């Protein structure tokens, strides 16, 4: 009764009333431009959501661990901390794995371990009977060995591999027929789509299409849907878009459950087994400790999305072989989230969040449509052969890279807020930095080009940001120019001047005038007059793009740096002009 009385003091407010208040506060500004978030997936995210926005969602009242598994495939929020072991030698790999388990890992992934016979395999897995084990880069001979060993010996925990069954369907059917219960032999790699530029919708749609193709192929080989579904796990890469990354895992579980059900599979076998790994595409070689922060938010997305196991990448993996310290930081990131932040205590903590439920429903519906489009084109296999998948990924990647160029997608410490004193040339393994596609690479090449030039005995160009005139504009434009030119690793000096004569006389390889539009014409004329008398030919550019561009060019201004400048093209051009060659 007391609660009823309390609620009476807060009468319902209609959506129309909220909209009226918003329009009034906008004072004529464009509602869509100010408040609507237009995503790469095609969803226009509203500034707020209400119960009415999710009232017709079928999955809304499903509990964790209950079909269709939108909330989770489990009844708890716990997950397994998977650690990757890079060692090749079986004994060395086993030793590293046992140390990782003692340090808090719940699951081990052998990335490069070589085993050619049962003795190698037993040595590799010694002492790990109760620890789930995953094998990357496994081939058909390794799968045969695993099937033989696990059929001979009972094992309490699961063994899985990343072998893609679509590469040899007949062999896949053979493995399923002989599969021991502890073995999950196949993995369909959704992560490859995300790392290649796919949106969340495309990632779940393409992954589901590949899985449906596989079930259909197995049915043609007289393998029932339940046995096929139980033989598959899925891997996803978790990117930076926090809520969409949560939603894509929730959505995929629903989609997979629906697909398995449509093939006659049971609800129990329709649980998607999902491994999530923090994104390689988001990693940077500059300001690399920011990768720890990125890995933390990405891991949280995976946790809230209900991943069964998670790998947080060591922060330095994109430019060198991770060391024990970086591995420990990666492992401890998850341990903190699990044991200190207590994120394992609740399954699907986002349940009931209007916005998250809307995004989940959108990704599921649009992902299903994406899958249906592939099916209509003849199925996943045909879509791959015809280039449909590749074309879609190429288009999405181009849009993602354009977002990086335009500044809508930021890499802190690389494309924005770069530390000009940081040097990477002496600490990177060049073979590793080009091994994976990464969003920051286009900017990193600029910095590395400058560093290489200096390492080979060249001079790092000195860029003077000449602040003069209007206090507000000079400061704003100097800050913008400093942020912009730092991406190329130039020697930057921001300096306040009181006259054009002092600017003309400054020690610089490039001068950037930082003032107001109104002051630029007279300032440029005076600067070049003084430079002429001093017999100096230092190139001068203007921060901004004023209406007097033609007049300034006639005065001698060499270029203009502004919000619409393409950073890669602009900085590459000036590297060339200042003597830094490819």
Description:
The chain is α/β, with parallel strands linked by helices and 582 residues long. The mean pLDDT is 95. The chain starts with a helix and ends in a 5-residue tail after the last helix. The protein has an 8-stranded parallel β-barrel with strand order 3-4-5-6-7-8-9-10, surrounded by 6 helices. A 5-stranded parallel sheet has the order 12-11-13-14-15, covered by helices on one side. The chain contains 23 helices and 15 strands. Helix 9 packs parallel to helix 11 (242-262).
What's the structural blueprint in terms of helices and strands?
Layout: H1 2-8, H2 15-26, H3 31-35, E1 37-38, E2 44-45, E3 80-85, H4 90-102, E4 107-110, H5 118-124, E5 133-135, H6 140-152, E6 159-163, H7 169-178, E7 183-189, H8 190-195, H9 200-220, H10 225-229, E8 232-238, H11 242-262, E9 274-278, H12 290-305, E10 309-311, H13 324-340, H14 354-376, H15 380-385, H16 388-406, H17 430-433, H18 441-455, E11 462-467, H19 471-486, E12 491-496, H20 500-505, E13 510-514, H21 520-533, E14 540-543, H22 549-555, E15 559-561, H23 567-577
Parallel strand pairs: 3-4, 3-10, 4-5, 5-6, 6-7, 7-8, 8-9, 9-10, 11-12, 11-13, 13-14, 14-15
Antiparallel strand pairs: 1-2
Helix pairs in contact: 4-5, 9-11, 9-14, 11-12, 11-14, 12-13, 18-23
